[in-house]
From TrEMBL:
PANTHER family: LOW AFFINITY POTASSIUM TRANSPORT SYSTEM PROTEIN KUP (PTHR30540:SF79), OSMOTIC STRESS POTASSIUM TRANSPORTER (PTHR30540). Transport of potassium into the cell. Likely operates as a K(+):H(+) symporter. It is found in: Cell membrane; Membrane. Residues 489-639 form the K+ potassium transporter C-terminal domain. This is Probable potassium transport system protein Kup. It catalyses: K(+)(in) + H(+)(in) = K(+)(out) + H(+)(out). InterPro entries: K+_transporter, K_trans_C, K_trans_N, Kup. It comes from Chromobacterium sinusclupearum. It holds the Pfam family K_trans. The lineage of its organism: Bacteria, Pseudomonadati, Pseudomonadota, Betaproteobacteria, Neisseriales. Keywords: Cell membrane, Ion transport, Membrane, Potassium, Potassium transport, Symport, Transmembrane, Transmembrane helix, Transport. GO terms for cellular component: plasma membrane.
Length: 639
């Protein structure tokens, strides 16, 4: 009875320590909705400007605004908030969470059909890198362009000011986002309130735009404009940028706070902002070049530019953090080479910093700003990456719903098929903007997909070759009984990718050195298709002849810690505490080379994989091993 009371008291205490839902919703505004929230700065103007813009006639304005409103409702409220947020992986979302559920724990050994879905998922994830480059550029640049609306003489300073802000943003990344993250939510809350107020002011003067709530105006817009109306979907998709972040970041806050923030403030504010811009254009169509800042009274332009700059910095920070997390998850799932990951917070494991990626992002983002120089030109390049990722996410959801959830075919077609039809329309409309800048995110995405695809393909070849060469552990133990080898004091830890058979590095060690430690531990680190492993992480099995197998399980959001695993294994095996000076870690390094007669594609794949393998972060550093106790044994394998 007392134990029950204590457990109840602990549970109640845990509930008290959890932040209120309202506080989590406020924090979610800053992290989740930064990109979606700052889209009104540049999205609507793109529909009426450039080579593919339509004339801002009253009917066109009402039709375009109707498309914006219903895109937010259908694609964000229904697709992401209502449907996809149910496709979480133990609370985590995002395209890699979908992929992990489809592929399972052993993607490298999966069949061809699963391999296809893995590659498709990697293509969608790769496109997010293009999003990570363009979002900071277009967001901050569009905010700073308010300066030239306030004072045309300041137009020459827009690009330099944007570059300075972006450089400073990337320079503070090593300090972590935790210290400034507490103000992200209030800044975005103030931003949403401000854009809603501007929209209401315009609606009060011209409520005719409320006709756009009727979706029939969006349909008649296509009938009236024909092909030009279809092409303008490339501008409409800009109001959806950041929807993937909403899904990917659900693990940080949970579904309920994200939904509360969306329906309670973000969605109403966005709808009012687009309605307000439409009301302005009905009265003053010549202001279609910069409708957002044209809503702002003259006395409020500079404060609004300042608030917009803060909001876009928050949006940029959220995308940078998302790219860091995406790369970290890719490494843990085996889809990307090991890179240096620094944790910037002792209390929050999710706050990480990737130095190499940070500086590459900075150079790419600054180059994009200097190359395009105007937000409307960048906006043309923006939609292709966003729409492609959204379409791939829908396909993977359909595969998950049918394969894992066993939905009937008619339900998959009705739900996923309807959403994919809209996604496909967005992709095709944005593909027409390829020469206007759409090549940029596509090029970035294809480059990242090449790296991730070659790494995944190389890993599959390596794992298959290792399985073919592997000796059953029973055969090794039997050989040790019949032909004992010299044993030396201490512990030998052999790292192995497989939790069965004999590690190749151990066979090479025996072949060349003819000696074993008194205690031999075969260590396997298994990455599970869950974000974090609950319960006992380490499992041990005594095999005989002083050999034991140790298997440690980690989720794709966690960081392996070999010394910690070894300490727990020693405890479970009733071994004395492992002395660092008496423990030797053996790592295998395999070099793949194409065999004679290999196809050109296979040679290219192995060549890229080999280059990445040579330049990835050292396993010694990645696993936290003492450098002076590590022995690496190499092997050259022809494939």
């Amino acid at each position: 009875m007392q134990a029950g009371v204590r457990n109840g008291a602990i549970a109640a205490s845990d509930r008290k320590r959890q932040p209120p839902v309202a506080m989590l919703a406020l924090a979610a505004l800053g992290v989740v909705y930064g990109d979606l929230g700052t889209s009104p700065l540049y999205a609507l103007q793109e529909a009426f400007n450039g080579d593919h813009g339509v004339r801002p006639t009253p009917d066109n304005v009402v039709g375009v605004v109707s498309l914006f409103l219903w895109s937010l409702i259908l694609m964000v409220s229904i697709k992401y908030v209502l449907v996809l947020m149910r496709a979480d992986n133990k609370g985590e979302g995002g395209i890699l969470a979908l992929l992990a559920q489809i592929a399972g724990d052993k993607a490298e050994t999966a069949g061809r059909s699963t391999c296809f879905w893995v590659l498709l998922g990697l293509a969608g994830a790769a496109m997010l890198y293009g999003d990570g480059v363009i979002t900071p550029a277009v967001s901050v640049l569009s905010a700073m362009e308010g300066l030239q609306v306030a004072t045309p003489a300041l137009a020459a300073y827009v690009v330099p000011a944007t570059v300075v802000i972006l450089v400073l943003l990337f320079m503070v990344q090593p300090f972590g986002s935790g210290r400034v993250g507490v103000v992200f939510g209030p800044i975005l809350a103030a931003w949403f309130v401000a854009i809603a107020a501007l929209g209401i002011a315009q609606l009060w003067q011209n409520p005719t735009i409320l006709q756009a709530i009727n979706p029939l105006h969006g349909i008649s817009y296509f009938q009236r404009n024909g092909f030009a109306g279809f092409v303008s979907l490339g501008a409409v998709v800009l109001c959806l940028t950041g929807a993937e972040a909403l899904y990917a970041d659900m693990g940080h806050f949970g579904a309920r706070p994200i939904r509360l923030a969306w329906y309670g403030l973000a969605l109403p504010s966005l709808l009012l902002s687009y309605l307000g811009q439409g009301a302005l254009l009905l009265a003053h169509p010549h202001l279609s070049v910069r409708p957002f800042y044209s809503m702002v009274p003259e006395w409020g332009l500079y404060p609004m530019v300042a608030l917009a700059t803060l909001a876009t910095i928050v949006a940029s920070q959220a995308l940078i953090t998302a790219v860091f997390s995406l790369t970290h998850q890719s490494v843990q799932l085996g889809f990307f080479p090991r890179v240096l990951v620094l944790h910037t917070s002792r209390s929050h494991k999710g706050q990480i910093y990737l130095p190499l990626l940070n500086w590459l992002l900075m150079l790419a983002t600054v180059a994009v700003v200097l190359g395009f120089r105007q937000s409307d030109k960048l906006a043309a390049a923006f939609g292709l990456a966003v729409s492609t990722t959204m379409a791939i996410t829908t396909i993977l959801f359909a595969v998950l719903a049918r394969g894992r959830w066993h939905w009937p075919w008619w339900a998959v077609i009705v739900v996923a098929g309807s959403l994919f039809a809209v996604d496909l329309a967005f992709v095709l409309a944005n593909a027409l903007k390829f020469m206007d800048g759409g090549w940029l995110p596509l090029t970035l995405g294809l480059f990242m997909f090449m790296l991730m695809g070659c790494w995944f393909g190389g890993r599959r070849l390596q794992v298959k070759e290792g399985q073919d060469r592997q000796l059953p552990i029973e055969a090794l133990l039997s050989s040790l009984q019949m032909n004992p080898v010299a044993r030396i004091p201490g512990v030998g830890v052999f790292l192995s990718e497989s939790a069965d058979g004999t590690p190749l590095v151990m066979l090479h060690h025996l072949k060349h050195n003819q000696v074993l430690h008194e205690t031999v531990l075969l260590l396997t680190l298994q990455m599970q298709d869950v974000p974090r492993v609950k319960g006992e992480r380490v499992a041990v099995q005594r095999l005989g002849e002083g050999v034991a197998r140790v298997v440690a399980r980690y989720g794709y959001m966690e960081e392996p810690d070999v010394p910690e695993v070894m300490a727990r294994a020693a405890e479970l095996l009733n071994l004395p505490e492992l002395e660092p000076l008496c423990t030797t870690y053996y790592l295998g390094r395999q070099t793949l080379v194409p065999a004679m007669g290999s196809s050109g594609f296979k040679r290219w794949l192995i060549g890229v994989f080999g280059f990445l393998r040579q330049n990835e972060r050292s396993a010694t550093l990645y696993f936290g091993l003492p450098p002076n106790r590590v022995v690496e044994l190499g092997a050259r394998i022809e494939l």
